[in-house]
Amino acid sequence: MRYVSGPMTIAARPGRLGPTTVPNPPLRPAEAHAPFKIVSWNLLRRTGAAVDDVAALVAQEKPDLLLMQEATRAIGFLLDRIGGHYAWAPLPGRIHGLAMWSPKPWPAPPRVITLPSGALVHRVCQILDLGTFGVANVHLSHGQMLNRRQLRRIVSELPPRAAVLGDYNIVGPAMIPGFRDVGPRRPTHAMVEVLPLRLDRCLARGLICHAHAVLPRGPSDHRPIVVHLGPAPEAHAPARFKGMAAAVARLRRADGSGVRARRDPPG
């Protein structure tokens, strides 16, 4: 059965994208002032958002990039409905996975990396190199230690300017050095329709978020989030990263001094 047309990829794996490879090109003046609109939505496999709902969201928001989690094979029909460019990365052994859609061609197909796995579900991540910055599409595990390990694996693959969007399944701060939580702060999911949680997030490094929003939920159990991202000036990023590294070092030294003081009381 033909379910997509156009440039679909399942597990494209070009060379490693990261700070150790070719650095991002210098920003042109137009790039520095042109926010890039990204929408992220957990569709809720099978019983949630279908192709018609996704097409309606695209028509309403007109994103430069749409990221989807819990996307089934049937979401590939999106290309027949609205055209564009689509990539799907199913989770191993599952009927659903991660998907990306864009109205314009990508500089290179998104690649897929394998994440540390839990006992039940094996996770992957889609990484797209846009040239001026990288974007990671994620659906992390529910375990609060495991999902942070997965996040650290992801950011190790990203260039200096990058954003990580999707369903984090994280409660509390992610605490990834160098990245700021720049997405909307409103709840995006209600556990058993009672406890509101902010599971859908955007962490960014070397980028400025010009605007963000949480959209109506629709047929899914998650609300889509929207961010408008643009590269931060090159001169601003190194100082911020250095300041954060210095702060972490000071905290570690202070903690070490406290431990020694407790172990060796004056006698």
SSE topology:
Blueprint: H1 29-32, E1 36-42, H2 51-61, E2 65-72, H3 78-82, E3 85-90, E4 96-102, E5 111-114, E6 124-129, E7 134-139, H4 146-155, E8 162-167, E9 180-181, E10 189-191, E11 195-197, E12 200-205, E13 207-214, E14 225-231, H5 236-263
Parallel strand pairs: 1-2, 7-8
Antiparallel strand pairs: 1-14, 2-4, 3-4, 5-6, 6-7, 8-12, 9-12, 10-11, 13-14
CATH superfamily of the largest domain: Endonuclease/exonuclease/phosphatase
Residue windows where pLDDT falls under 50 for at least 5 positions: 1-27, 238-242, 257-267
Q: What sort of overall outline do the alpha carbons produce when their principal axes are compared? A: globular
Instruction: Using the CA coordinates, give the radius of gyration.
Output: 20 Å
Largest sheet: 6 strands, mixed
Structural class: alpha+beta
CATH uppermost class of the largest domain:
Alpha Beta
Mean pLDDT: 82
How are helices and strands ordered from N to C?
Answer: HEHEHEEEEEHEEEEEEEH
Distance from N terminus to C terminus (CA atoms, Å) equals 79 Å
Protein name: Endonuclease/Exonuclease/phosphatase family protein
Organism: Methylobacterium phyllostachyos
InterPro entries: Endo/exonu/phosph_ase_sf (IPR036691), Endo/exonuclease/phosphatase (IPR005135)
GO molecular function: endonuclease activity; exonuclease activity
